[in-house]
Q: What sequence folds into this?
């Protein structure tokens, strides 16, 4: 990040927001197409993207994988409350579970809330067993996702 530009100084105008929306929908959109979409020249769009990257607003470009296409038909939300003195061990174990694709450390009754992708329900117990000596768990199976991860701008 440039030293003269702090995140608190960032102001996104309508063009910045539109560029971010377009890239959020397809991070591989060519700059020429982005430029046409916002009625600007490609060099101007390039400069805006560079500024958004340098300021940290655009933190990276990612591929969005469809878990169902890879055979992961179930999603489970696992809430974990670590057992006394087991925080570091639990966190290390969480990082070893490849099906656990997202995990937040939270306040409240639970310590972690994780999103787990499974090919079938029989995979759930062995994963939960791998952390049973480290945490109490509460698991819910996701029926649907009415709000997908959405853009903040």
A:
């Amino acid at each position: 990040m440039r030293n003269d530009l702090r995140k608190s100084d960032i102001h996104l105008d309508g063009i910045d927001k539109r560029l971010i929306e377009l890239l959020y929908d397809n991070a591989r959109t060519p700059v020429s197409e982005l430029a046409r979409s916002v009625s600007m020249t490609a060099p101007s769009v390039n400069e805006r993207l560079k500024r958004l990257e340098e300021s940290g607003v655009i933190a990276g470009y990612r591929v969005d994988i469809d878990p169902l296409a890879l055979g992961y038909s179930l999603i489970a939300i696992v809430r974990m409350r670590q057992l006394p003195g087991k925080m570091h061990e639990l966190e290390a174990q969480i990082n070893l579970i490849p099906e656990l694709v997202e995990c937040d450390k939270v306040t409240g009754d639970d310590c972690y809330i994780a999103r787990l992708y499974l090919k079938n329900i029989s995979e759930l117990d062995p994963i939960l067993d791998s952390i049973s000596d480290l945490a109490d768990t509460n698991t819910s199976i996701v029926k649907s996702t009415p709000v997908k991860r959405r853009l903040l701008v």
The helical segments are 14-25, 31-37, 42-54, 87-96, 124-129.
